[in-house]
Task: inverse folding
C-alpha cells in the first residue's frame, strides 16, 4: 500500500467533503437522492448519467483543477470516483472504448478498469491482453482489475494473483510495485466477509505481500468479529514473526512497525464494540512503558493514541463513540499527553464538542494552550521530505471566538488565544484564490 499517496488523498477528501454533480438533464425520476450528515441533499446519478459526466472529463470538456487547488482536487476525486462506482458494464466499456481509441491516455482509465474488475474481471483481463500493447501499462491495469475484483470476490482474486507467480522468474505484478494495493484490498474485503478464512490465508501469504495483506485484514474487520479471539490470533501472529521474521523482514513502514501498527488497528475497531476491553488490551500490548517518566504520562499518551485512531486521524472513523466514552472519564482530559494525542483528531470531526471538552480541563493555562494550538495558522516541523504538519488550523476561528467568554480566562490566557486567532486569520487572508474549476 502506498501510504503517502493514501494519506494525501484522505486529507484531500476530508477537506473537500462529499461532492456530487446535480442531475443537469432533468432525470429526477431515475436518480435516487442521498442525504449527507449535514442534511444537504445529493443526487445519485444513474449509470447513463455518470457515463455522460465522465465522457466530458475524458474528452477534455471538463478539465481537472489546477494542481495547487487541493480542495477542488478533493471534490474532483470524490465526484469521479462516485460516478465510476455507479457504472454498469456497457457504460464502463463505452468509456474505455472512447479513451483508448482517442489516443489520449487518461488517469481515469485506471479507475475504469478497477470498476470493470468489479463487474467482470475475466472480461477486463481479456481486454487488457488484446488491447494494451504497452506491457508495463498492461501490468499496471491488471493490478487495477485485481483490486476491483478483490472487493467482491477476494478469495478468487487472491488465488488468481498467487497463480501468476513464476517461481524463480518472479511475479509480474510485483514488479510494478503495485501488488501491495492488491494484497491490502483483497484482505480488507476478505476479513469483512469471512475473517476466519481470511486469517488462515494471511498466515500463508508470501512474505512480500504479508505487510500490506495484514494491514488490509485489520482495516476490514467487521463489527461482528470476535475481537478477543482476534486479539489472541494477533498476539500469536506477531510472536511467530519474531521467531521467523517473515513480516519484519519486508515491513517498509519504518516508523510504523507491525507490533505497533496492527494492535492499534485492531483496538480501534474493537473499541466500537467493547471500548473498555479494547483499551485494556491495547495498554497491555505496549512493551515501551518504561521509557516514560511516569505511569500516568505513558497511559495518557497510549490511550490518546487509541482515541486518535478511533475517532479517525485522517478520515472520519467513529468520533461520536470516542466522545461518548471520554465523557465519563474526565480524569483523562487532565493529562497533557492525552490532550495532545486525542484532541486534534476529535476536533477535525467534532469541533464544537472538542471546545466543550477543553472547557472541562481543570487548568486554565492548559485550556488556553489547547485552544491556541488547535486554532493557530498551519505549523510545520522538519525539513524537506521529513516535514510534517503539527496540530494547527483545525478549529474554526469564528467558533472559538464565539465561545471565548465562557472560559473565564485572565488577560494573559486570553491574549494567547487571540494571538492564535489573529495569526490564523492573517494566514487565511493570504491564501491564494484559485479560479473557478467547475468542481
Result:
Amino acid at each position: 500500500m502506498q501510504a503517502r499517496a493514501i494519506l494525501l488523498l484522505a486529507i484531500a477528501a476530508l477537506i473537500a467533503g462529499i461532492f456530487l454533480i446535480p442531475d443537469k438533464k432533468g432525470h429526477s425520476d431515475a436518480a435516487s437522492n442521498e442525504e449527507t450528515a449535514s442534511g444537504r441533499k445529493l443526487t445519485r446519478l444513474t449509470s447513463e448519467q455518470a457515463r455522460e459526466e465522465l465522457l466530458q472529463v475524458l474528452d477534455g470538456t471538463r478539465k481537472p483543477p489546477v494542481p495547487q487547488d487541493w480542495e477542488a482536487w478533493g471534490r474532483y476525486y470524490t465526484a469521479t470516483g462516485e460516478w465510476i462506482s455507479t457504472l454498469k458494464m456497457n457504460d464502463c466499456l463505452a468509456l474505455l472504448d472512447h479513451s483508448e481509441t482517442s489516443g489520449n491516455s487518461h488517469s481515469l482509465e485506471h479507475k475504469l478498469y478497477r470498476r470493470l474488475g468489479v463487474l467482470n474481471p475475466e472480461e477486463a483481463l481479456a481486454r487488457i491482453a488484446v488491447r494494451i500493447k504497452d506491457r508495463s501499462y498492461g501490468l499496471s491495469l491488471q493490478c487495477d482489475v485485481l483490486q476491483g475484483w478483490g472487493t467482491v470476490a477476494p478469495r478468487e482474486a487472491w488465488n488468481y494473483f498467487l497463480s501468476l507467480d513464476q517461481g524463480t522468474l518472479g511475479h509480474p505484478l510485483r514488479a510494478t510495485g503495485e501488488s501491495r494495493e492488491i494484497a491490502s484490498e483483497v484482505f480488507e474485503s476478505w476479513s469483512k466477509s469471512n475473517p476466519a478464512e481470511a486469517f488462515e490465508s494471511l498466515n500463508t501469504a508470501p512474505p512480500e505481500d504479508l505487510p500490506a495483506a495484514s494491514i488490509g485484514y485489520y482495516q476490514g474487520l467487521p463489527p461482528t468479529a470476535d475481537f478477543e479471539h482476534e486479539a489472541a490470533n494477533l498476539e500469536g501472529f506477531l510472536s511467530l514473526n519474531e521467531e521467523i521474521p517473515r513480516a519484519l523482514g519486508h515491513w517498509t513502514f519504518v516508523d510504523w512497525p507491525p507490533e505497533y501498527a496492527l494492535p492499534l488497528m485492531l483496538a480501534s475497531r474493537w473499541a466500537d464494540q467493547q471500548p473498555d476491553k479494547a483499551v485494556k488490551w491495547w495498554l497491555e500490548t505496549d512493551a515501551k512503558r518504561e521509557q516514560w517518566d511516569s505511569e500516568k504520562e505513558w497511559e495518557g499518551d497510549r490511550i490518546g493514541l487509541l482515541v486518535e485512531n478511533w475517532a479517525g486521524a485522517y478520515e472520519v472513523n467513529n468520533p461520536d463513540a470516542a466522545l461518548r466514552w471520554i465523557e465519563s472519564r474526565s480524569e483523562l482530559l487532565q493529562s497533557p499527553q492525552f490532550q495532545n494525542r486525542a484532541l486534534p483528531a476529535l476536533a477535525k470531526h467534532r469541533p464544537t464538542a472538542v471546545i466543550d471538552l477543553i472547557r472541562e480541563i481543570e487548568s486554565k493555562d492548559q485550556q488556553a494552550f489547547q485552544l491556541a494550538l488547535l486554532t493557530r495558522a498551519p505549523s510545520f516541523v522538519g525539513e524537506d521530505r521529513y516535514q510534517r504538519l503539527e496540530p494547527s488550523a483545525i478549529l474554526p476561528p469564528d467558533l472559538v471566538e464565539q465561545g471565548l467568554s465562557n472560559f473565564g480566562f485572565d488577560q494573559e490566557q486570553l491574549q494567547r488565544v487571540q494571538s492564535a486567532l489573529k495569526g490564523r486569520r492573517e494566514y487565511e487572508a493570504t491564501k491564494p484564490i484559485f479560479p473557478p474549476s467547475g468542481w
